[in-house]
Give the backbone structure.
Amino acid sequence: MTARTTLKILAAVRRTAWLAFFACVTSTFFADWPFGRFWLWLPALLALAIGLGMAVHHRRVFRLRRCEAVEVRPPVSGRWTTLHSPADRTPSHGTHTYGQTYAIDVIAEPEDRPRPAFAALWPLARPARDFPAFGAPLHAVADATVVHCEDRQRDHLSRNSVPAALFMLFVEGSFRDIGGPRRVLGNHLVLDLGDGVHAVYGHLRRGSLTVRPGDRVSAGQVIAECGNSGNSSEPHLHFQLMDGPDSETAYGIPFRWRGVGVPANGEAFTADPAGRPDAVPAPGAAPITPPAP
């Protein structure tokens, strides 16, 4: 059994354990279960789900390989701001799962259209169209082949208030994780860049993909639009490189955007996917130094 197959089996059993745990808890609202052996299942399922999650995490950490950053063109154009950058820490999203070790989130911040501020209580949520990132064109980072794409999930309301963010963090995120990477990434596509490198674009706008599996794309070509599908607090692009087409078994690969580098958290940058020299790097942007395995 290969290492990737083992990861896939562990992840599937973990999601099943979480699903069974939530099903048992939910069923108590509709039936009077007797105390006894039934209630032993709840801590057992919870312990199994958490234990398998830790096993997957440690297996990924153990097998992390040291590799050089791959330089590609920026997937966005115009002025953007960075969140969850691997320039600040790895894993950038707090987990190695789904090949996210070196993933990055970017949010459109055009100077002529301010982005709605995060709210303490009200409004609880906003339509995706209120954000400048929604509908922004996304570009192929290199000449590549499309190996997977999905664009039928809805673009939901934002989660940019304290109550909505807490709901996403403690409730929605857990249920999406049970659904696997497709429910976390939402509408997404995977490009094969060659030499074992694959690029992932997540949280895309429903119905915006201009490509299908098997299509060849050119660097800089518009392939989709930014959306707010999946486990997303507001319209933004989730981008990562990984060493296989399946994010459930792939390992993350560090990247560097040509003309931009790797902007740190909260830093603004102006990108030009055509690769012209007028791209403005974020202050202090630098290549990633991968951690030792």
Summary: Residues 151 and 207 are 5 Å apart (CA to CA). The first strand starts at residue 70 and ends at 72.
